[in-house]
Design a protein that fits this description.
With 171 residues, the protein is mainly α. Helix content is 70%, strand content 0%. It has helices at 2-27, 30-46, 57-73, 96-111, 114-124, 130-137, 141-165.
Length: 171
């Protein structure tokens, strides 16, 4: 029991920050994010014996967190809100120009099809490798790498289109 507890404490210490950041990105609510992380670690404690490879711990915990987040929506009926009409302030931006860039990036990432958006976010926010993302999403690594490539290309195309519509040139 002592070994299991020390192993568990090491997981919590090593990954609680990453899990919280990912949870916050998913739900944009600090309290819900904290609850998701707490539920994730509760389930991790119960299933800790099933974690055979410590190197896979982060991906394992992210998978648990994604499932916990999905459980929030299983029985709930939500009022739909047009996201384009709801401003999302970023209180940590250094200035208005950065706010505009961040909002542009968020908007365009949100417009990506989920098959492109999710691997991109796991890589950028979670710091996962292509292999880890493939494991988390239960996909082939080549599929993940193709989706990451396409997601970046779609963002680049959107950026180029915005620049050309404003009459700017690269240079």
């Amino acid at each position: 029991m002592v070994i299991k507890q020390k192993r568990y404490e090491a997981l919590v210490y090593a990954f609680h920050g990453d899990l919280f950041r990912y949870a916050f990105w998913l739900c944009h609510d600090r309290q819900v994010s904290e609850d998701l992380v707490q539920e994730t670690f509760l389930r991790a404690w119960k299933a800790l014996d099933s974690l055979k490879d410590e190197k896979a711990a982060k991906a394992w915990l992210i998978t648990i967190l994604r499932r916990e987040n999905a459980r929030r929506f299983e029985r709930k009926q939500f009022d739909l809100v047009d996201l384009d009409s709801v401003p999302v302030p970023d209180k940590h931006s250094p200035g208005p120009e950065q706010d505009m860039e961040t909002e542009w990036l968020r908007r365009h990432i949100a417009e990506l099809a989920e098959e492109y958006r999710e691997p991109l976010l796991l890589q950028v926010l979670g710091g996962f490798s292509g292999e880890e993302i493939a494991e988390i999403l239960d996909l082939n690594k080549n599929t993940v790498m193709t989706r990451l490539f396409r997601a970046r290309n779609k963002l680049k195309e959107a950026m180029d289109q915005d620049k050309s519509s404003r009459g700017q040139s690269n240079g």
